[in-house]
Amino acid sequence: MAVYQAKNFDHLLGTPGFSDQLLKNHFTLYQGYVTNTNKLIEELEAMTKEGKVGTPAYAELKRRFGWEFNGMRLHELYFENMTKEKVDFPEGSSLFKKIVQDFGSFETWEKDFKATGAMRGIGWAALYYDPVANKLFNTWINEHDVGHLSTCSIILIMDVFEHAFMIDYGLKRADYIEAFFKAIDWKVVVNRYEKVKAK
Questions:
Q1: How far apart are the first and last CA of the chain?
Q2: Which of 55, 116, 159, 183 is deepest in the core (most CB within 10 A)?
C-alpha cells in the first residue's frame, strides 16, 4: 500500500492568470512525485531486507529520495497557498506586522521575494520563518533539495521551474510572478505563520 496519496487540487482550475492546461499539466507532474516517492520507499525497504545497503544502487536511490519527496511536498505547499478567489493580505495580522518589522515594509519584502523568484535557474522562492532567531527570510531553493533552512518553516512558497509558467507566459517569468501574487491565499499563509509561532 502506498504511503502517500496525491491530493486533489482541481479547485484551482479557473484561477485567473493560470490556464487550465497549465494547471492540469502541473498537477500531473506533482502526481509523478508522489508516485516516485512511494516507489523509492518500496525499493529502499526491499534493498534493506535483501542486504543490498552497501551498493551504489542503494546509495543513488537514497540520494534520490529527498529530491522526489521534496518535489511532492513543495508542490503541495505551493498549490495549498494558492486560490482562485482574491484574498487580501490582512494588514492587522501577526505575519504582516512581522514582515514590516523584519523587512521595513511590506513593499520591501515583496520586492525582495519577487527578486528571489526572478533569479536565473530552476527552483523555488520561499518565505521561511526561523524560530531560533524569530526572523523571516526570503530564500532560494535549488531544484527541490538544496537551499532549505534547517529547523525553519515554510510560510509561503512559489514554484519557479519553467513548468509552472511557460505554457502561459513563455520566458516572461516576471509576468508569472505577478499572476502568482494575485493568486496567493493569504489566509493559508497567515495560518502557517501563526501555527509555527504557537509552537
A1: 33
A2: 159
- Return the residue matching grid coordinates 496525491: 6
User: The C-alpha cell of 184 is what?
Assistant: 496567493
pLDDT computed for residue 177 by the predictor: 98
What are the residues facing 110 on neighbouring strands? none
Strand arrangement of the beta sheet that strand 153-159 belongs to: 135-142, 123-130, 153-159
For residues 84 and 16, the answer to whether their CB atoms sit within 8 Å is yes
Q: Which domains does the chain have, with CATH numbers?
A: 19-80 (1.10.287), 94-198 (3.55.40.20)
Buried/exposed 112-151: b ≥16 CB within 10 Å, e otherwise = ebbebbeeeeebbbbbbbeeeeeebbbbebeebbeebeee
Residue 196: closest CA among 113, 135, 108, 147: 135
Nearest to 109 by CA among 95, 119, 123, 122: 95
pLDDT digits (tens, 9 = 90+) for 107-120: 999 999 999 999 99
